[in-house]
Each structure stands twice: as structure tokens, then as C-alpha cells.
């Protein structure tokens, strides 16, 4: 809900809130943050805003629209940094809306940390779905991020390096590309030094990076740094050049010297603080101080400079105004921390703002502009960000959220304030009066001599009725436009253009809005024209309205419709000739906004449909007459005036031509329920199909053939609004639903009762035409939704889902009734891949066409669809045998490793096959047998490869060795663990060691402990874990014997048969280095496994004796 609250009001200004209340998350952040917290805000002109606090980024809509919900707030985590994140390094990219983004429902976010970590979220509502990339900045700090085009931004660093960051709009594979901007080779050296490392004094550095309006070949880019203004022109990544750079210091010093009364320019120190653009004019905010003056107070000024479109360098300041009330700050640094805001380019207001004040400048281009300061230092308040929305300046206050500041000096509309308007009104009235006086020369009709008659001689009333003032402004403008149209019909374009200019060209505040006075006047005039009365027909004399345009003078119905078509074409030409065509925006049609251009096209289409119906009227007179009477009863127009027929009434009101479709189908249902014979049922449905098909096909043909005629060349003309053709209108009474019902009726009642092949063929031809109309309507709506809402929007996704479901439902009957050619034509035209695959699998000898379709639809993902089709049905053999030669299969099978290696073997790509097999083996955890097979196949592939895979083969051998240790586990141990001895689960070397030395392995001997020692080689030797495991193996070997029972004179005779020393002997025998794998006695005695034997001196004696003997043996071996 929109809420406006006056915060402060004085005789000079008014501060009030803007838009709805802040989201709860934003309010909590502002309340909980310390006064010293670094909080910054960006207010984007799309209606989206972001707030940065520490590493938290909050996104919300500050302006309510019909499409976007208010109150939602998304929180994202920014990259880690040791510096402070700022909103200047955030770029909001609206998605799912129009070109302006003002109705966008979603937003993409590009954020850069001060150190240069780029993070991109394709949609703000998915926090974890982002792409990240680190830039190599060499210690530089990022300064600002500026939107540049639709999916690009310009990143500037504090050392003046510029980079273009491009993001992919796809949410499936979002990517971030970075290109460093470089000046052209022909530029002088000082440009390079400016961009890549000029030395800075205490206040030097970038002030603003500003993107200009799009031009045919690219975008201009303006950079303000110190006292230098530089212009770039960028066509794309790698296609940039520096157009010029201008040193502005001297121009500003000269002006400030005059204002300050300084004796010399050398005493003036200038700072350029900010820059904004108005068309080809740069508005620059500057500060200066007179160093020779005892009172060195900084003065603030606003100057304008022409920014030429060619390579000419600016040579002078066009205007220069010193702010009489500059925003004051308590410290010197704050005195220069000021920014410029132009909310409405070309308007009279601009704003100079800092953290604690705003200065409103009124009459910027007047000789005596006024300045009014608004303070924001009360109760800890401050300005955290600024922006504009719909030509209005907005600011973000710490205490109040989004606010506006308006000066009390009201701006009256130009048509009230301008005295010259009176003269213009007089000219308007005078033109109308002259028109009414001259009208008599156009009152003699000639039925077919002109495209249409301006006025009819049969009228007995005066023609000046059209000039009467109704008191309704919209009605008066419609009448005025009608008069201008009549002037154009007389080839008096001067009067027509003057009338239109007086009526509409002054209403600039209404342009770009739905149901503006211009749009309503054009829509009403077009509707009145196609619904006009036959002025020359005496039967209509009593019904003829006084302000009729008299678009036809014919008495023949078909000729009346043709005249109306010519009149409507002339109306469209008139709208273009008087210069209001590209000013048109939108009107409400069927409860939805629709561009006025599309409405004009719809009126022409309905005229074409009416003419087609009229041509069919003789052949199907009974059916159409009954349907016409039914339609008129629904309109409550069944009381036909004397002398007229229902046909005359119906064909006169062309704007309601769609009523005939519903009336025909209702008549069809009534007749079918009356118990018709099968033959009559087929005849009735076929006749209804013929009528509807002819009417709607004629309308759609005109829509397609004349689409360029009704196309607007103005991006702001509402072309991004969703468009639903009238022949595809939805809802229970919409034509789309009626066509679907007729499709079902044709399949269920007509085809089923057709007795001969000829009748069936005719019905299927009609069915194909109805299917075409339905799917063409969907395609037009999808294309419009993609342009208006975006391909990633919820609306587009839902519509596409309905389309794909409806498409298969409509085409499937052709397949079921073996109408393969018609099914193929429709499936190919509308890319129903499921139907195409079924056609090729239907056993009709068309399997060879599958390869053809793969080539034909290679850029639309048909191959992937086919591959997935066979995988989902478990037909993997057919997939690999029929399509192994296609390169797309290898790419498709990359996520399907269990099949991909077979394709690699088939294509002799053995290196890739061994890599895939090893990955599969690594992921295998349930079956040792399967893992062994995969490793063995991988080894064979490596051996078959022409590349050197010795390292990979060695690694495979090591893994196979570990599997051998699986297979050598004692059978009794496997049984105790309840494992399947024929197919053990895959275990790590550490897990195998634990099993070999575990207490469950009650029959373990030196061979088991030796295998445990062998498995140590597959573990990382670094760290204490490896050493502890090695010591545990020897401790467990010690615990396998009873050391207290070893008595005698020579202890070696007893201990040499212990498991411990047998393991050592076997390890020595098989080449293990005991100095590395056998711990010393002290380490063994201190281990927790032998805690119970530490005080056993007998054991310690025997252990040390054994170690002494081992040491002698090792010495002897050397």
C-alpha cells in the first residue's frame, strides 16, 4: 500500500515520504545499527533499491507496481573483505519486466567487493545461486560500479583502471566476463597515464563514471577525474576508444575568479565534484576557494558544458551559476563531499546533496535560479543515498526511509500559465468553425468515387454538432481529433496538424501512460470508424448519429466493409502524418492494458474478418443468420429498426465481430442435441468449421501481413506490454477456449461418424487449420510475454507450460488416426519433438527422418530430447548403436558417465574413456567386484590409448592392489561381519587395516599384520594419524601372544615364535624397511594399547631383547 506522510513543511519546502513503508528487515537494520555504522543505499530508477550494511546486502522494491509485490525483501551475503562494502559497488539489473524495468518482478544483482571479488546473482531471491570471480587488481581498491547497457557494468578502481563486466542473463549457466578497457593506439601518452596510474594529490581520483544514452553503434562513457573530463565510445568488449579528454581547470578558474573577485587565476583552487547529463549537455558540480582571501570559504557552483557527439573537444562553459545557499558541513572534508542529482532531465530542478543536507535548485536554466537548503542533522538523521523514479528526485533518510523534497513554489501547467495558450485555443475554435462553414462542399456523396465519404448529403441536421463543447475534456479531444481527421481527408494537412498540435502535443505529462487522452481519442475514433453507420442508406436515417465520420457511402453491405477498411487505412496514415503515431502508448482492452497500435491492428483485422463472414453468408445463410440473431439477443439488440435486418445491425458494429464465433458454436450445440443423423452431424460440424476457419484465418493473415504497418518505432510506446491477439482471447468465453471445444467436437463427433475417406480428409484439413490458429495465437502471446516479462519470468513459464501441453493434445489426434503427414507438418512447424519421435518410432518406415530432424533442429535441442527419450525408456542399446556417430551424443553423455565411456570407446577416444571409468570406479562404494571391473576396463583403455598414461596405470594398479586386500580378508571375519563374501562393499585402506588387526579377527597371524603394514603405503604419511595407526598395528600384534608364559634361560627361543617378531621377520624378508615401519620399544611401551603392560618388567625385558636381536640381524645384513 502506498503511504505518504509529511515529515517537515515550511513556507519554502515540503519533505514527505515516498512509496510504501520500508520492509521490516530494513527497519531493523536501521534501528540496530550504530551511528558509526557504514550504511549506504542505492535507489535504482527501476523501482528497486539496495542497502549495504557490513557484509549484508538487502534488496527490495520501494515503488509499488501492478506486477511486483511490495514488502518482500531479499538478503544476500557479500564477499568477505577487510574494507567497507558500499552501495556504489552494487548494480541492480531488473528482469521479467519491460525495457525500463519499472514493472519488473525480479532483479539480478552484481556486487563487487573493494578488493575486486565479483559476485553475480541471476535472481535475488536465490541467495545461494551465484557466480563468483576474483579480479587481479594488484592491490587496487574498487571505486564505483556503473550500469552500462542491459547486462554490462563499468568497474572503476581508485587508480583509474576501467573494466567492463558482462553477465549472462541465464539462470542455468550464469557467467561473469571481464574485459579491461584500453585506450586506442593513437591516443597521446597522457591518456594512458590518466587511466593506468597517474599520481594523485590529496584530493585526486575519480569523481564519477557516467554512461550516456545508447547510440546506433554503442554507448558513450564519460569519466570525471580531478579536473579532466574524458569521453569514451564503446561498441562492445574490445571495441572501445577514447574520443577526447578535456582539461576543465582553466574554464572553471576563469569563472570563479570573476565571481570571487580574485586578482589572479593562480589564487583559485578548483575541485570538480560531480557530473550529470541532459542530452548532449553535461551539468557539472564544482567547488572552489580563493587561497589569497583571509576567509577561505568554499563556494559551490553549477556549470553546463556541451558534450559534442563528434570528436570536437568542448571549448567553453555554456552557463555558470554559484549556489547562493550551498550545503554546509562542519569539516573541510565534508565540504567537498557533495553530489549532483538531476531527476527529470530537461526539467527546472536539480539537487545538490551531502550526507547532512539537500539544496534544491529551481530554474536551473534561468538567469536567476533560486536555491533552498533542507537540513538532515536532527536526531541522528542523514542522507544515505539518492536516485530518481519517474522523473522525481528521491532520497534515502536514515530516520524516514525513502523521501522526496519539493519546493513550495508550484509549477503550474504550461497551458494555464502561458498566456499564449489563449491564442492557441482561439485558433482551434476558429479552425473548427471554418471547417463547419466549408463542410457543405463535401455533402454530395458519390458512392464509389472516393475511398470513403467525408459527410453524407442525407443528413438534415447541421454539421457543426461535432464542434459543440460537451464539457467532457476527453470527449472534446476525441471530437477535435475527428475534425483534424476530416481536414486530412480534404488534403488540408496544415489545419489537421495545427489542430493536433493544439490538442495533444502540449500534454507531455500524459505521454507514456495507459489510457492517456491521446490514446483514448485515437482508440475511440478508430472504433467509431469501423462501427460507423452507412450514411447513404436511407433506412439508417433515424439511427444515424450526428457526429458520424461517414466512412462509407455504399448501399451494398460488402462494399460498406471494404470502404471502412480503406477509411481505416487512411486513419492510420493520418495518425502517422501528423506525428502522433510514436506518441501512442496503451489503452485498456478486455480488462488488460494493450498497446494502441495493436488495438488499431485489431480493428483492421475485425474488418477483414467481417468481410470474410460476409462472403460466406450466401453459402451458409441459414446458419449465419441464426447465429447473428443469437449474437444480437445477447447484446440486447434484437429490436431491429423498421426497414433494417439483423444482418445490417450485426455487420455495422464490426468491433464486436468475435461474438459470431460463440453464437455459431451455441447454435451448433443446440442442433447436435436435437438428435441429428451421423451424416447431418458431420455436415453441421464441417460447415461451422468452414465459417470459423475462414473468418479467423482472414483476420490472422492481415495481422501477419501488415504487422510492420502497425509497428511503433518508439521504445517507450508500450511495446513491452503483454499482447494477446483477439483471436486467442482466453477465458470461458474467449475464442481460444471455443476453438479448443470445436477441435474436440470435430475429433469426437465428426471424424468418428465420417463414412468415406474424402469426408475424413476434409475434416482433418479443417482440424489442421484450427490447430494452426490455436498454436499461432500461443506463439504470438509467448513472444510478447518474453519481451514484456522476460524468459525467466513466472508468467512466461506458466504460459509456455500451457502451450506445450495444449500443443501435444491438439496434434496427438492426427497421430492416433494415422494422419502422419499432417501430424509431421504441425509438429515440425511448432517444434513438438515428442510427436516427431513418436512418428519416427511408429513403424511407418520414417526412422531415417530422425537423423534429418536432428540436423534440422540442431540449434533447438532436438538431439538432446531424442537421447533423453531413449534413456528414460531404458533403450540404451538403441541410443548407442543408432547415434554413436553423432558428436552431440558425447556431449550429452557427459553427465551420464555410465554410458559415456561406451561412446568414447566407440569413437576411439580411449583417453577420455579411461578417465570416465576411473571416475566411475572412484564413485563406486557398494561393490568391490564392480569397481574391479571398472578399473580393469580403465587400464585396458589406457593401454589402448596413443597417449602416455603410465602415471594413470600406476594409480589403477595401486587401487587394484587395495581390492586384492579386500579379497584376502579371512572368511570367518567376513561371516562375523555379516558381509557377502562374493561381493564385498568398497572400503578404504584404513578401514581394511582396522579389520585385519581387529579383535574380531581371532585367527589373525603374521600374514594379516603384514597385509595391514602393506596397506599403510596407500595412506598419507604426513601427520600423527599415520604414525598412530602404524604403532597400533604393532601393538595389536604384541597383544596376540601371552608374554608372561615365556620362561627359560634364552628368551629369544621363546619370543621368536611370537606374532610380533614373526611379523617383523616377514616384513624384513619381503623387503620392508624396519627402520621406518617398526617403532622403537619406548614408543610401543607408551602407547595406550599397551597401557596394561607398562609395569610388566618381564614383558619389557623380552621386548627389548627381541629388538636387540633384530638390530643385530639388520647390522649383519648390511
UniProtKB/TrEMBL annotation:
Residues 419-464 are annotated as: Disordered. Residues 794-977 form the Nucleoporin Nup133/Nup155-like C-terminal domain. It comes from the Eukaryota. One of its GO terms (molecular function) is structural constituent of nuclear pore. Residues 9-318 form the Nucleoporin Nup133/Nup155-like N-terminal domain. It is found in: Nucleus envelope. The keyword Phosphoprotein does not apply. Residues 430-441 have a biased composition (Low complexity). SUPFAM superfamilies: Nucleoporin domain. GO terms for biological process: mRNA transport; protein transport. Keywords: mRNA transport, Nucleus, Protein transport, Translocation, Transport. GO terms for cellular component: nuclear pore. PANTHER family: NUCLEAR PORE COMPLEX PROTEIN NUP133 (PTHR13405:SF11). Belongs to the nucleoporin Nup133 family. This is Nuclear pore complex protein Nup133. It comes from Strongylocentrotus purpuratus.
